[in-house]
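FAQ: What does the model actually see?

It sees only this:
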Amino acid sequence: MKQVLISGDRSGSGKTSITLALAALLARDNRVQTFKVGMDYIDPSYLSAVSGRPCRNLDSFTLSNNQIKDIFHYGCRDAQIVLVEGVRGLYEGAEALADSGSTASIAKILDLPVVLVVSAQSITRSAAALVKGFQEFDQDVDITAVILNNIKGGSHREKAVTAIEHYCDVPVIGAIPRMEEMQLAMRHLGLVPYREGAGRGDFDSRIAAITDIIGQYVDLNQLLGTMKDVPDTPVQKTLFDTAIDRDVRIGVAFDEAFNFYYTDLFDILHSAGAEYVQFSPVHDRLPQADGYIIGGGYPELFVEELEANDRMREAIREVSRNSLPIYAECGGLMYLTDHMNIKKDWQGAPTDQSYEMCRIFSGETRMPSRRVVSYVEGTSTSDSPLGAAVFRGHEFHYSDVELSPDTRYAYRLSRGVGIYDNLDGAVINNTLGSYTHLHPVASAGMFRHFIELCRKKA
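And it is asked to produce this:
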């Protein structure tokens, strides 16, 4: 098995497009397993699509070192090549003076060589100074190669490559021209999720174009030569391997409106004795189950369809009244409020329309609001459907939920915004809705508590 981590010198370096294309190219002849550093749903959706294997997330702020290694070893089983995509710049993390949450921390925990993607726009010799600084900043991080992006022409390429290879003693294995074709579709919180975009016109052709460009300008043989060779070892037992009868059925909302899930969630459900069935709040009727999970996504883009499926909304409202457990994150929380008020679309055009949602939590969702992207820390009360716990997670939204003053909250946050005044996890009956996204491995105990509650209600 060969393993490598691909990081950027900053956000916008082009690392996502480059990693995506490299995964697609290498997957033509190899079993490629991908991972994504950080709490992110959208990049993994692309990496899963091109590799044919589910991408998994690694985050050193929410996960312990052992949990990171468990996820990594479990995901790597039967793989021939492992690509880990970093997050933002190599050293960006949760704190200024520590590397928790950073790409660098994952490289060190898993002993992975790093290929550094550098945006060389408007710099040549200075690119060597930049790479040298990255090498010296933390000498426990092994930067083994560089890929340059945004190269203007032959002279630009020659000067930058010569300087880096001379001063930094690492090979430049790719120099990619600045091209509009390298850009992926964006919106207010980042890239368009793959599931949503794949059916839209030139979306797949755009990914194919990026792959073709990278194939021309990155030396795959050199890339393979920089990777860490890992000998075949016996399959290691991980936290996912618990053998148990599956006696609980969980409905998981999954469609173009709700698709923000970590791959590990489905393994954690199985390890806790639950089978799951996917359903679409946009298109389907609610399937019979012992509990339900409604993840995040972009429900604001499908409000008309969600409102039109009144049979689904009424069914969800009924199971909540009957105290069947429901866990909803972010977009799921928005769907469970009375109304969703859209003042502008994601491109800024005024709409000023209100759409009826599930009417479980008394209050409304407003779009757009301030952009919130941050790590979360908090505690959960013992009467929460997810039980008493200390947790870490992430919030990622462009909306505001205003609930009735008598709303009960299960989460108190010491870091993060939440729904209201550092409170999150609105609760009614056995329904919990939060802006906090939990990592299912870091918060495995909370998910197992939820499954046990479903088991008792079955």
